[in-house]
Model the fold of this input.
Amino acid sequence: MGMTDYTRHLSTRSRTSRESAIRRTGDIAASRADVVSLAPGFPDPDSFPWDEVRDIAASLLTGGDRSALQYGPTRGYPPLLAGLAEIMADRGIRGGTSATVTTGSQQALDLCARVFIDPGDVVLLERPSYTGGITAFGNAQARLVCVQQDSEGPSVAHLDEALTRERAAGRRIAFLYVIPNFQNPTGMLTTLARRHELLAWSSSRDVLIVEDDPYGALYFDDVATAAETRPIMADDQDGRVVYLSSFSKTVAPGLRVAWIGAAPALISKFEVAKQTADLCSSSLDQRIVYEIWKRGIFTKRLPLIRQCYRERRTIMEQAVCSEFGASVTWIEPKGGFFLWVTLPEGIDTDALLPRAVDHGVLYVPGSAFHVDSCDPRTARLAFSAVSHQEIRTGIGRLASAVREELDAGPSAVSAMMAGSSSAARSSSAGSKGSSRAPGSAGG
Ligand SMILES: Cc1ncc(COP(=O)(O)O)c(C=O)c1O
Done:
């Protein structure tokens, strides 16, 4: 096998897509049993409702309801759609919002790309932003324009500057993509005031907002409240917001069930786009998630899940503090899965990665979440899928790798960059539209 040269058979998009540096490192890590991976944004498998899913699946698979394994409507299992309306109402989103189920929010991002983006159109994003969004929009040949965040969220002044510049150059703005609740990768919570400003701005400038909210239910109640996670969509009067959410982090990501909430006219467009993507999301998965919600299991488990991640956040913050002291800073996560750290001066997290793997720890370098330049000292550390002991071990190993790297000095760093990690650097260097989703399955 492998005699045919496929180059001329591939689409331009496929030819120009590149392998993810992080995924490559993930392969290295997978070959080493003792690596602590702080890289993937996976939920804790102990948080999955195993017993409940087993019972529900067993009753669904008796064959009594022939539709459980049949094709279903593209927009989704109707009782689940009614449930989604209730979940959105609980989050403050007004009635009249329509919904379609999607196969994960990742499909929702892809559908947004299909429905809104022509090649060359501008997508405005936060800097940094979620790799899965960057990839989905980049693959649709969008021009990705990133906007700095301050302590409250994406800067409206910078957004307006970018919009004015891009429109003056004759470009169309497809939408603004934001993750206001415990952003992937920074863990940042956009303030309510900033959400209102963003909405007012989008209305005055006639821009759509794609609001991606997989983590909103996972606030840490020692530092945040449910009220602070109120979606931008909840105050949207004129159908400007497209709301994305998912059961991946609150039930289980292997049940690929998520949804889009939007004005009915847009949901029809998403429905048509979804028909060619997959006809419908898994009928069985949708029924399982529906039963989990209808039986009250979803709501009942949320406090436990919040508690689990809150504890892991605390353990990781303590570990970073005791291993690094003041030489490392981070954004205090008020929910979600991630600690976004800035390592000491002189560290480049892309170049450090092979050494970190040698020490038995894996993370995602900050460059993976950028489409342009970034602070090379940044990295995303996920505390969601690792035990307390693994967190302590992993952070200890990261500290040894950092010390060794600093001791080795700039010459050793540049030698490393020229050697083993050069591929990693080049493939993560600001390649717009390439497929470089780090640890990608499950962001
Ligand atoms: C911000 C964000 N959006 C979307 C997704 C995709 O989630 P899923 O496709 O499992 O719903 C993730 C996963 O990590 C994410 O962090």
Notes: The mean pLDDT is 91. Residues 41, 104-106, 130, 132, 179, 184, 212, 214, 246, 248, 253, 258, 442-443 surround pyridoxal-5'-phosphate (CB under 6 Å).
